[in-house]
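Raw record, unedited: Charged multivesicular body protein 7
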Amino acid sequence: MSDVAEMSLPAEWGDDERMNFLFSEFKENRDVNTTDWDSKMDFWVALILKSCRERGSVLVNLQDLHKTFRRKEKSPLGLSTVIQSMARCGKIQREPEFAASVDCGWVSWSVGMLLVKPLKWTFSTLLGGGRVPLEESFVVLELVKEKAAELLGVYQSSEYSSCPVVSFQELCSLSSDICADESTLCMALLQLQKDKQVIVSLHEGEKIVKFCQPGQERVSALGDVDIGVYQLQLSEKLLGERVQKLSLEADRCREEARLLLREGKKSQALRCLRGCKRLEQRADSLLAKLETIRGILDRIAQSQTDKMVVQAYQAGVAALRLSLKDVTVERAESLVDQIQEVRACYFNG
């Protein structure tokens, strides 16, 4: 969590008398002086929310709060009470509790991820007045809803908006300006899944996210066509990178041949030119296959409302399920050949 010097502070932070009161422990009985109690509680709740917003985070824990709000070598004594009160009021929720409130496919990943450390206490203990563990993280519900809306907006305005399925790693990069860390992104995705705006799934060892598309009230189930199109897009990216690399290698060979000719090394220059020719032929071959994939993707994009065309492509798309753990150019090429056969079967037969 950010140091207090990095966030904007309320005016009373410089008032020693006021801050001595705010840094003191809460009275055991609120009824003794409800005005003082509520004033102190409101101050800390507002400052915690402000701190999270400025950091781009939706998570809090006591250990970080004590560091963040340290003043003149002292930490606030009543933050545990503030956390307990926020939990009772439904402003915050423990990470595992929040994850468990989300149904369907996400839970197997999210709960497994969040419960990596043994839980030494329960939520009922918290509400019953027990001590709050320093490192226990809580989701700020108001902020996670805001962050979820931000994330959805970033996706919808990005180059990925035409791709219903996005890899988790691509989403990490896309959200780096709005999510302070991966945990914040995970919480935002949990909220979006709760709102039926995304589905998160584990496919062949990699997390993928399917977003709700324009015109839909809720995200549709992740199907074979979705996975197939995702794999097509993965193949398109892979082949594009390979074509670019081969082109650069060919340019280097051509330049090397020129230098050798200037030095009078004709035989070596000819060998370089032959190598250059092979690289160019290889690049042309891959480029043709890349154009095939792009054509398939364009056709699929244009046929979203034509159920019969989508079904016809389904078999071809299914053939493009590359293993995400072992994607190679050769496999991508092989799959292009397979889908061309499927196209011939469905559209020329």
